[in-house]
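Good morning C.,

I know you're traveling, so I'll keep this short. The sequence:
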Amino acid sequence: MSFETVRLDITSENKIERVLIVRLSAMGDVIHTLPAVHWLRRTFPQAYISWLIEERWAELLCAPGSPRRGARSALRPLVDEVHTVNLKAWRKSLLSISTLQGAATVWNDVRAGHYDVAVDLQGAMRSAVLARWSGARVVYGAAEARESPASLWYTRKVVARGRHVVEQNLSVAQALVERTVESSHTNISCDLPCDLPCDLPCDPQAEARISDRLRERLTEYGMGEFAILNPGAGWGAKRWPAERYGEVARGLGDLGVRSILNYGPGEEELVRVAGVASGGTAQAMSCTISELIALTRRARLFIGGDTGPLHLAAALRVPVVAIYGPTDPARNGPYGTRSIVLRSAESVTSHARRAAADEGLLAIGSEAVVGAAKRLLRIVS
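The tokens, ready to paste straight into the viewer:
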């Protein structure tokens, strides 16, 4: 995606001072939004930038227990304030006192921010409504939103450009900058940097816990360099067979690289199967989001399907072997890191949440994955 450089001036009445980003979920989608927000931060360095996000994903923006507003630091490196909603819990008891009180508290905080601009980078009805109800004077969003009615809530509809979702998010942010520049008089560049850093929190407590857990495994299993293998995925059609992850762990073991099987809630059986197939060469580890960030920073390699931990690894510039089935890697593949994407020609792009594994995905053997890992390890060694 190419961008022209525009340098004009901005008058004080058109200056962007307070921006609200709306991207509620999920892990991978929040990570795909980070570059656009970082660019807005770089372009408007004095602006107060906040983010409205689901509570369960807030650790991607702010380390647990740290202040959610105020001076930025390694604990909250990107945004000045984090607003959270708990829509999943609220939906279970819409009319309860606790739900109404929680929603009112959040909404009072958001509206008290007096935001000049809200930018919806989710494109869902719920995110678009929340962006509009924020009280922001202007609401930006993609003209072709993921849920078509969402665009009715925007005051500025942007034709998103680029094939990858990261590029599409950047193009929406760029439209905000260009619009500001067109009606202004201070030098601002609409140039997009080639390499935007990843602003994820660094939680000292999580870092220490992961160091201790790795030290235990180093003593017990002789673990030095390690790869993260992630058998889970959002739905069955994206899930490569768990036993093949175990076979890959065996292959990596022959290269002197141990494997950690990352898993989340409900994925215990997947890692059990993978662990048995690995013959003891892989160890299971469940992490909080902050711990997963700390673990991934230390990894030599990541192997998995189209899921949040893969996109986290890519954002942290960890080399990735990506195993794709029904989702399109051109739009949702690993972005910004060295990677090899394996996808069968039999796979047809679809976001249908089918339980059965994609036939094309099943056509990818463990030997192909180990071979890709070898190539990446040679490149980055």
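Safe travels,
E.
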